[in-house]
Amino acid sequence: MTPGVQPISSRTQTMPEGIAGLGRLEQVVLTAEEFDRVVSQALPILLDRAASSTKRFLRETGQWSDDVAHEKFVLRWGAEYLEQFLVCGRSEAPCRPLFLLDSMVAKQHSRSEPFCYHPDLLTPLGRLIDGLVGRAAISRDALIALFHHCYGLGPGQVITVLRLNGSESPRIYKNFQRWRDSGWKRTLEHIGLTEAELEGLTAQQQQQRHRFNRDAEHMLRVAQAHYRKSEPDHDPCLSRHQWADMFRQGYGIEYRIWHLALCLDCLHTAWNVGLDGASAIDKPHVVLQLQP
Amino acid sequence: MEPEQDFAEYRERLLTGMRAGIRRSACGAADPIQVFVNQRLVGLLDRAEAEATLQVQSQTQIDSVQLRSEDGVLLGGLSAPEYGFRSSRISLTRATVELRVHNTTQGGSVRAVCIPSPSFWHRTRRALVGVADSAAPRPVAFAGPGMRAVAFTQVLLAVALVGLVADRITGWMTPVRPSLSVTQAEVPWAAPIGEVTKLEQQLVELSRMQAKTVETIHTQQQGMAQLQRTMAKLSSTQETVASSVLTVKQEMEHRRKGAGRDAARMTRVIMSRAHSEQEQLEAEIHSLTVANDRLSKEMADLEQHNQDLKKRLQSAGVDVSKATVSDRETPMVARQNRALQPPHTSQMAEARPTSQQPPVLFWGTFSDGASQESLDQGVREMRGRNGTRSEGWQAVEMVPPVQPMDRVLDQITQTTIVKAVRVSRR
After folding, report:
1. Residue of A nearest to B21 (CA)
2. ipTM value for the complex
3. Which end of chain B is more exposed for a tag (fewer CB within 10 A), N or C?
4. What is the pTM of this model?
5. CATH match for B330-422 among 3.30.70, 2.40.10, 2.40.50, 3.90.550
């Protein structure tokens, strides 16, 4: 274990408090309101429980290593599971909250790839890319913002690249604006990237721009390949002819937005189709943007 | 920063975010809501619409439904049952989302409806007209105009009450205001006593009128409440009556359908029985027809066979006659032998059915010199046998000849030992 990092369950609560809290969580709650009351009083315990389950899963699958990056990784996914538990678990009342959480986490871990785990994604750069792409899977703002953070495109250029019509354009601007206002900051908090780490990345990029972006492209491809599968309908890649047909006939708006944000190769293919003056912009390549 | 402190801060930020819940979302009240089924985005609920609806059918069972804002904040959700229905109402800012999940063995379905919350002025207006009172029963259709009139009266009364109260408050506040019109015209203490008394009387009268008005309003409100109670009772009574009528109708319909079903069932039974009997009869008729045809055919064959036999018999008779004529010169014994000899094999085969016929009986008298032995031998040659003897006539039974009987008797008569023959006793 990394020096200075204690087991998470022992950091914030003393043993008797933890046992008492566990005892309350093991009892049956009868209504959704009672569920809300009980779990809101025991969030730290539940977070530690979910993180411990994730840690155990990584250990059992040979993916665990005693360092801060892994500890943050399991905490991030523990929080993700706990948030889903808070929202969906109340509909399961009457239930025993602790066991319900265990079953929900176990169900998540029974999926083929419950999360995007790769040793390269545990570095600050990898965590940033994993966090951005992972957020894009659940947030439209983050999905649109990927075009900016990965390729440096602004809202107008995104509209041009995606060949969107007038009705979709205001929404793109709105996504950008909201991302700059709050989404970026919230995502950094969610992935646990500190200001110091961000500044370190900026310094790396300035010193070794080419290498930095090459590493970023490698990690981006790993993360994109994983998260793109969360929308199976929008996962398959298209040929140049199919892209041209789609742009010409104007269908598949949602597919375009999802797939081109999460597939670098298809973005290049779609770019080469060269419709509607898209060639006026430089061909997109990975230039990681560390500010919104 | 120390790793321990960094980690603790990260953990605390996550917990703070979870405690904040949906307040973290920066999306507006009109921004769409993302609907995730089994953690896959399936559609949007557009809150700009009056009542946005999203219906999703899945061939796999539904595990969870989640609502997220466009900035990714989890707004609400539902954990689906393995089988059956589950629904949930999720209150958001200026909207409520109704989720309904149905899982079957064939898959699942989700229905999400976003219902915008009514605005403040809409709620106020509804409160004023008394519709927002959820405790009060909904008026029935026939009472619509009446209830509207009542609501209008209530609004009028409320406005009048507000006016009176404002006037009263103004009256109370008047003495302390330095800018009263009364004081502007003349200083109170400089006014004549009579005017002051008159004003006091007017105030008292005004107060009395206000009190009376308030009392009237109160009475009217009581009357309105009683009227509402009566109407509620009336509507509930009417609902009871209507439900009773409906129950009776349903019962009658049920009985009618039941009787109809019984009659139909009986008819079906009878019809099926008659049908089966008819089929049975038809089968029997058919089998009889087939048997009749077969018999007719056999009869025709037999007749044909009979005709053939007759023809052959006739031709055989002709042959025998020819043979008799040609052999007239041969000795009598030999002629007798030939006549009494059995026919040829082919003739025997053809005449075989006639051997089954009863023997022919005739009587004869014999020459005086004929011995008994010669008589017996002659009878044997005729394939006959002796019968009784009476008055000189000897009965002889013989196998029925193929030739006609007259011709056979002529042949017998022509023998030397026979004097005469006859076929009858006299």
Report:
1. A83
2. 0.89
3. C
4. 0.58
5. 3.30.70
